[in-house]
Structures are given as structure tokens and as C-alpha cells.
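Next comes this protein:
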Amino acid sequence: VAGTGTVALFALGVAAVSAQSDVVPGAPTSVAATSSNAEVTVTWSVPTANGGTAVTGYFVTWTSPTGSRSGSANVVASATSYRLTGLQNRVTYTFTVSATNAAGTGAASASIAATPHTLAGAPANLTAAALPGGQVHLSWAPPGDNGGAAVSGYRIERRVYGGEWAVLVSNTATTLTSHVAIGLDPAVFYEFQVSAWNSAGMGALSAPSPGVQPVAP
């Protein structure tokens, strides 16, 4: 009987130690947020300390400055990102992420802010000037509305006057507002149009330039 009592007490002690050793996980690390058109993607890294038992999921929260656009979501343990859609552009949202294990939900990460944005407006004042050697110099003004995010480049299209549009430069990858089109046929007239890129995508097209005929070499 005494031996049985000793075994029982030992088992209770092991259970108590086990219960004490399993605690909630630490906060996820490297939390970041990338915004786009009406959406934000939040990413993170697993906690450095899982509390002694496997992480079973994550809890993502978000709120706007007034608190009127707030919410939360449970994310599976295998994921380290969450994409939130249907947000209002030009409103800044704050996000946190916490991890959950069998002992409960741990502390939230440091908050991270992101502002969804929309496509840029159309560039303005597009001009096209003929240059010698089958070239045309293009110049334009940046969009009056960048959609809430910095312009990162421009798309340039051309067509033979009255014909179908074709891409001349998919993305200039620069904020410069001029470009020299080369290798053009001096025997025909060309039109050009330009649109701006930001992180939400390609914006509205400018009005076509006046028709221009390159100068022969």
C-alpha cells in the first residue's frame, strides 16, 4: 500500500511539473504588412519560444484609427501570413499577431501599420517631339493623384496613327517623366499614351499625344 501511495504521489508530481512547464507561446517576430488596392497582407515569423508545446494557430487583429473598422481572424499554425481584403483605401490600419498553443494565447506582437491604396490617376500634358534618326522625345507630368502610394514607374504605349495600341515600355521603373522612343519609321505618324505604376498596379491612361512623324536619319 505504501508503495502504491508513493507511485501515486510521484505521478501527481510529474503531472504538476508538466502543467507548470507548458505556458503560452511568445509573440511572433518580424511582423510586416504590405498594402495594395483595398487589401493588406500581414506576414510574421514563428515565436522564438513556443511555451513548451507546439503552436496550434495564430490570432491576427486589425483596427482603424477611429476603431470603426476593426476585426480579428484565427489563422492555422502552418501559415505565417494573412491577406485581408475589402479594406477602405487611404485609411491606416494597425495590425498585431499572437500565437496560440495548448496553454492558451500568448502576447501580441508589436503593432504594425499599413494603408491600402488605389491605382494612380492618369499622367497629364503628354507631348511628343520628333527627333532625327527615327526617334521621338516624350514628356509628361506625373498624375495629380498617385492613388495614395508613390509612383514607381510608367508604362508607355504607341500606335501608328489610327491603328492598334502596342506596348513600347512595360514599366520604365523610374520616376522620370520623359522617354526617347527609338527605331521608329519616318514614313508614318505615331501616337503615344502613358500610365503610371504604383504598388496597387497600373493606373489610368493619359490622353493620346498628338500625332508625330519621326525625322529621317
Remarks:
- Residues 2-21 form the longest helix (20 residues).
